[in-house]
Specification:
heterodimer; A: mainly alpha; B: mainly beta; 26-stranded antiparallel β-barrel; three-stranded mixed β-sheet; disordered N terminus
Chain lengths: 343, 758
């Protein structure tokens, strides 16, 4: 099956890049027109809000603009009415004054909620930002003022951002339940299950990764804030590279390659869990027979007759670990006669 | 305050750890409410600690390894968790340990000064228990076997004399019962250093030693199959470093990843119980290859720039090199009687592959109500391993076959480009309507298609931020088609030319997902979700014909009052697939016609005879239930948590001879009566996993608590391939398996715990 990869013409790459750049230009110009519109103070939210941060979500709307005369009043003033909000904030990373990037080192409550002088004068008429009532884009814009690096650097345009999730979909500043990352649930599992119920259910199957045993978490493999790899995978540049970052014995390169292995582990395995042995997507030999239908034993119907007890020797192609009982080196072989992965 | 400080101090210290990760069925939970409450300490120094220890007992019927799996639940004293956190002058130091002294222990020590530096060291062990009832003829320490497994000569002698002796001999003292599984020992150290306000360095080093053994194949032919134990003596050393600069509208990042994998055993030699003496057609020993040692390096860079007007462009590029360690290619066979073997074309694999990945992302919100984003990814896996051509093969270490034409390896490579563009319209506050376009092209070497291309469109409707409900929906339709199909490549390897490998076969895909959360009252939330999809492989005469799945779930979360919460959820999953084949001898027409219908007076060769077609209709159902009840900090004394979850799986594998109505291809010949005997259907596969956990803690005061925990777990299984009832111990006159099987079990673990905090 010798065949070389057909590459895309470099001109096509150039065209793609040019198209992107043009799109960027259009975006900038279109925004120039809308900037005037956005500069006007919002009538609905006259209270102050933090300045739209550099590096914040471009897709976010600028938070409600400050009323002209709104000034900061200091944390103590806020706490005269909102003392209950200390509970989650104090002692949290946000409150650490020695870290100059935290709200605690800046303007305290008003760092995120905006200047509060007008609000202090007349709370009903001048509401501050209540994150639970804001649009996701507004929430994200405030949070990414600071959380714009490291794991959060690729939030913009990420799958979750595109589905209208905001930071407070999963996190809470004042009422978090987890010991790490200020999650709204006690564990990542509690949070992720909100939308990914099917994936969480798979973790309880008999074939599973050690997630329910506490040795792995969703974020062991995924960066939920955005990633350069597909499917928000945290490491590597392909599914295989992510998997082989722990299962390095499978990465080869082998003399004899099994193409679907190199192409992606998920061709045969379901990493979230399966009721089949080794987290296979279905039971062998039926899994293998989805591609190997040629002749002789790959094309045989392995029905109950071959299981015994009426036959003197049940077929090892059905029972036990089935095909891989013989084709053991299924992930690849360095044996000179390893073409069929038997050695 | 103290509570938060305690937890946060620990969290800051233990950022890389999952020690606090608690899920139903995980080790006994320490509700946050029992952490000492104290007066606000402001920034004054403090130290806190926590100990959870006691005595434990586990009982289990059946092979308890599937119960323990990744845990160590042995009887006796245990130290479930320990934590010490100290804060002094903006510095946090701490130590945390879990399951200390057990095979699944984890310990972390670290220190941090938030915004300046954080460093940690972690020791983590992850066992993976497979079986304690496996049995073998192999002698000695079969797990730490250094790549050699021996069987006593008298057994091989009797097996050679008569294969029927083997099942009779398979009992102690000729055999030994042993435990099989692996253990990971992970030592990890990392640092995060803020060099300046805008510049951060991150470094990580991890050493993972994996030891143990796994069941492995060792066939000597179709009627002499031996299951062996592949030694696992791996070490992987990972080094990662990145430097990131973020200032104003710019972000730059440079990174390095290095992974060094060493396998102490790259071959496995094993005796044949059916044969003592080597002959030119049968071997007393076999030798397999095991994974090669290798290294993988990559360097990457990322730049991101915020453009005027709510736009951002981000570019990422990564270049990597994967190489094997230069180990020699093993000889063709270990069989001493086989002669006439040619020298190998080369002595080393010279495995080498280069990777190049890039991503460009552009996001923009040019208008208040409109945003769009586009992402382009490319990934090249350029396998530069030289082709290995051999004109001989020694299958199963038995006879040598001279091959004409010679066979050659196929260094597999792939070049992948993905584009995803989406535009969204903000219909109402919190409600978006989106449309998108997906493009994916994959060109692979040594596959039947020169390349395959996916073109897809999708639409989304999301409404959030509403007091009463949240809805997220997505519909996707994707068409995948291949270019440059070469069916002769299938013929060359004896495959049916109508077969299409499922991972690149042309298909139409429909998928819809709906997730809804209804909150009629502040303390009650209902959630429902539904996902359905169908993959229709329109050109696959053989292979996977279609694939359907549906997942439905519903749940309720109810918090009647503070510290009391109930939740229940149910989900149903159905995965169905039809795969098609033809039971036939190879395509070597002798006295038969290679066409169907055959000419008058002739019969069609099996390979071309559609009356020998068959399909298997697979249907797998899973019902899942999760129930939780939490009563925390009741009367400032009690914490009680009860959780139950259940998984009920059933799989049917229904063979159908002849064509399957409504699931044929548009131009397919149908109505051909089957000439295959009626299959005797495989028994359905069932497995049920039920788990109940209850944790009760009585707090005498804020410093001391007494806890009782109880786990109950029951696993039932009927599996035609892997349960003992179906296939006995797996030893016949043609096969000697290890007896690695699914075993039902009922297990219970009880804890008596003392919890101390300071």
């Amino acid at each position: 099956m010798g065949r070389k990869i057909r590459k895309i013409d470099p001109k096509a790459w150039l065209a793609c890049g040019l198209a992107l750049w043009l799109a960027a230009l259009i975006g900038v110009r279109a925004n120039a027109a809308s900037a005037v519109e956005q500069a006007a103070p919002s009538e609905k939210k006259p209270a102050a809000a933090p300045k739209a941060p550099q590096g914040s979500s471009p897709s976010a709307q600028t938070p409600p603009q400050a009323g002209a005369a709104a000034k900061t009043v200091g944390e103590d003033t806020c706490l005269t009415c909102h003392d209950d909000k200390k509970r989650g904030y104090e002692g949290s990373p946000h409150s650490v004054k020695s870290d100059e990037r935290t709200p605690g080192a800046k303007l305290g409550c008003e760092t995120c909620h905006g200047p509060g002088s007008k609000h202090a004068d007349d709370p009903a008429a001048n509401p501050l930002i209540r994150f639970s009532k804001e649009k996701p884009a507004t929430v994200n814009a405030v949070c990414t003022t600071c959380h714009n690096r490291g794991d959060h650097a690729l939030w913009e345009g990420s799958q979750h951002e595109n589905r209208n999730l905001s930071c407070i979909s999963c996190h809470s500043v004042h009422n978090y339940k987890s010991a790490q990352k200020q999650l709204k649930g006690e564990s990542q599992r509690d949070v992720c299950i909100t939308c990914h119920r099917d994936k969480i259910a798979k973790l309880d199957r008999s074939g599973h990764m050690p997630v329910r045993e506490g040795k792995m978490e969703c974020t062991t493999c995924h960066n939920v804030h955005g990633a350069t790899n597909v499917r928000l995978l945290r490491k590597g540049d392909s599914i295989s590279e992510l998997c082989t970052s722990c299962h390095a014995d499978k990465r080869g390169p082998f003399l004899w390659e099994h193409p679907p292995v190199r192409d992606g582990c998920t061709t045969c395995h379901d990493p979230h869990g399966s009721s089949n042995e080794r987290m296979l997507i279905t039971k062998p030999p039926l899994l293998c027979q989805r591609c190997h239908v040629s002749t002789r034993h790959p094309s045989t119907i392995y029905d109950s007759v071959l299981l015994g007890p009426t036959t003197p020797a049940p077929s090892v192609r059905v029972y036990g670990r089935s095909c891989v009982t013989c084709h053991a080196a299924i992930h690849g072989s360095n044996h000179p006669s390893g073409q069929r992965f038997i050695r | 305050m103290r509570t938060r400080t305690f937890i946060v101090a620990a969290a800051l210290l233990l950022a890389p750890a999952t020690i606090w990760a608690q899920v139903p069925g995980s080790p006994p939970h320490i509700p946050p409410t029992i952490v000492p409450q104290g007066p606000s300490t402001g920034t004054s120094p403090f130290s806190v600690g926590f100990l959870d220890f006691g005595i434990r007992n586990t009982t289990a019927d059946g092979d308890a390894t599937r119960y323990e799996r990744y845990r160590d639940l042995r009887d006796g004293l245990f130290l479930e968790s320990a934590l010490i956190a100290v804060n002094q002058n903006d510095w946090n130091f701490g130590f945390a340990g879990s399951h200390m002294g057990m095979k699944d222990q984890r310990m972390i020590v670290g220190g941090s000064n938030q915004g300046r530096i954080k460093g940690w060291f972690m020791w983590d062990q992850i066992p993976m228990l497979l079986s304690r009832t496996t049995q073998t003829f192999f002698e000695g320490d079969v797990i730490n076997n250094n790549g050699v497994l021996r069987i006593a000569d008298p057994i091989q002698q009797q097996g050679q004399a008569n294969a029927n002796n083997i099942p009779l001999l398979f009992a102690p003292p000729n055999t030994q019962v042993f435990s099989i599984g692996t253990e990971r020992h992970i030592a990890e150290s990392g640092v995060s250093l803020h060099l300046t306000k805008d510049t951060e360095f991150r470094g990580l080093f991890r050493n993972t030693a994996k030891t143990g053994g796994i069941p492995y194949g060792g066939s000597f032919g179709h009627s002499q199959l031996v299951e062996t134990i592949a030694p696992v003596e791996h070490t992987t050393r990972d080094a990662e470093a990145s430097l990131e600069y973020v200032h104003d509208r710019y972000l730059f990042r440079a990174g390095y990843v290095g992974s060094f994998f060493t396998n102490d055993n790259t071959t496995l030699t094993f005796d044949n119980p059916f044969r003592l003496q080597d002959t030119t057609s049968a071997s007393s020993r076999g030798r397999s290859s095991l994974p090669p040692s290798s290294t993988f390096f990559s360097v990457n860079g990322m730049a991101s720039m915020r453009l005027p007007g709510h736009s951002r462009v981000t570019g990422y590029i990564s270049s990597g090199l994967l190489e094997d360690a230069g180990d020699p290619i093993m000889p063709q066979t270990v069989n001493t009687a086989v002669v006439g073997i040619n020298p190998l074309p080369r002595t080393t694999v010279d495995g080498k592959a280069r990777t190049l990945a890039s991503t460009v992302t552009f996001t923009s919100r040019p208008l208040t109500k409109v945003d769009f984003n586009a992402r382009f990814r490319s990934y090249d896996y350029d396998n530069q391993t030289p082709v290995f051509i051999t004109s001989q093969r020694v299958s199963y270490d038995n006879a040598v076959s001279n091959l004409n034409p010679a066979i050659e390896t196929e260094p597999f490579g792939v070049s992948r480009q993905i584009f995803d563009g989406q535009a969204r319209y903000l219909w109402r506050p919190g409600t978006n309507i989106g449309v998108g376009y997906l493009f994916q092209r994959e060109a692979r070497s040594h596959r039947i298609y020169e390349d395959v291309t996916d073109n897809g469109v999708y639409a989304t409707f999301d409404t959030v931020g509403n007091q009463w409900f949240t809805v997220r929906t997505r519909y996707e339709f994707t068409v995948r088609r291949g270019n440059g199909l070469d069916e002769t490549l299938l013929s060359e390897v004896g495959e049916q030319t109508g077969m299409r490998h499922m991972d690149l076969a042309p298909r139409d895909r429909n998928r819809i997902t709906v997730i809804g959360v209804l909150t009629p009252m502040e303390n009650v939330a209902f959630n429902v979700s539904a996902t359905a999809g169908k993959d229709d492989y329109l050109q696959s005469q053989f292979g996977l014909r279609d694939n359907n799945h549906q997942v439905y779930s519903a749940g309720i979360d109810w918090t009647p009052r503070e510290h009391v919460a109930f939740s229940a959820s149910y989900s149903f999953e159905d995965y169905a697939a039809l795969s098609r084949s033809r039971q036939a001898n190879p395509d070597t027409p002798t006295g038969c016609a290679n066409t169907y219908p055959p000419p008058a007076g002739k019969v069609a060769c099996q390979f071309y005879d559609p009356s020998r077609d068959w399909s298997v209709d697979t249907d797998e159902f899973v019902h899942s239930f999760i129930l939780n009840a939490d009563f925390l900090n009741i009367k400032n004394r009690f914490d009680l948590r009860v959780a139950y979850d259940s998984n009920r799986y059933s799989g049917t594998y229904h063979y159908i001879t002849g064509s399957v109505p409504d699931r044929t291809l548009p131009d397919e010949v149908t109505g051909v009566p089957s000439t295959l005997p009626d299959p005797v259907q495989l028994p359905d596969v069932h497995s049920n996993l039920d788990r109940l956990t209850a944790d009760f803690v009585y707090n005498f005061n804020r410093r001391v608590g007494l806890g009782v925990s109880y786990w109950f777990e029951k696993y039932g299984v009927q599996d035609f391939a892997l349960d003992a009832e179906s296939v006995g111990n797996g030893v016949t006159n043609q096969a000697v398996l290890l007896g690695y099987m699914y075993t039902p079990y009922t297990a219970q673990t009880g804890w008596l715990r003392l919890i101390v905090r300071w």
